[in-house]
Write a structure and sequence with these properties.
The chain is α+β, with helices and mostly antiparallel strands and 95 residues long. The chain has helices spanning 3-16, 19-28, 35-42, 46-58, 78-91, and strands at 62-67, 70-75.
Length: 95
């Protein structure tokens, strides 16, 4: 494995590791959501949600589309969806 691959993975994991960003990614795993939708689920301010979405967008983890006055966020990278799915299987199942 090349050093650049390690650096890229570390950067991705560091970005995802914040609890709010991780929760946002879990919410976006199966569907697109607006800031308002995410706000209702994460229980923080719209401004805070927007800040975390901006960080995820800047790292290329999520993307968005505009539809009239709404911006719909989604996971942009299939590998991130698979990573979230694997982490949920490993850590969120009751044994």
């Amino acid at each position: 494995m090349h050093d650049q691959h390690i650096d890229d993975m570390a950067k991705l994991l560091k970005t995802m590791s914040h609890p709010i960003r991780l929760k946002i990614l879990c919410l976006l795993q199966d569907r697109e959501l607006t800031v308002g939708d995410i706000h209702k689920e994460v229980h923080t301010t719209n401004a805070n949600v927007s800040q975390h979405l901006s960080i995820l967008r800047n790292q290329g983890i999520i993307s968005y589309r505009k539809d009239a006055n709404f911006i719909y966020n989604r996971i942009a990278e299939g590998r991130v969806t698979e990573l979230i799915k694997t982490m949920r299987e490993l850590f969120c199942t009751i044994s």
